[in-house]
Amino acid sequence: MKVLIRRATIVSPSSPFHGKTLDILIDKDVIAAIGKDIKAKATTVIERENLHASLGWVDCFANFCDPGYEFKETIETGAAAAAAGGYTQVMVIPNTNPVISNKSAVEYLVNKNEKLVSELLPIGAVTKNAEGKELSEMYDVHSSGAVAFSDGQNPLQSSGIMQKALEYVLTIDATIIQLPDDKSISPQGLMNESITSTRLGLAGKPALAEELMIARDIELARYTGSKIHFTGVSTAKSLELIAAAKKEKLRVSCSVSPYHLFFCEEDLLTYDTNLKVNPPLRSKADRDALRKGVNKGIVDFIASHHQPQNWDNKVCEFEYAKNGMETLESVFGAALACGISCETFIKMQTENVRNIFKCVLPKLDVNEKAMITLFNPAKEFIFGETDIFSKSKNNAFVGKKLKGCVFGIINGNKLFIKK
Question: Residue 412 belongs to a domain with what CATH number?
Answer without folding.
Answer: 2.30.40.10
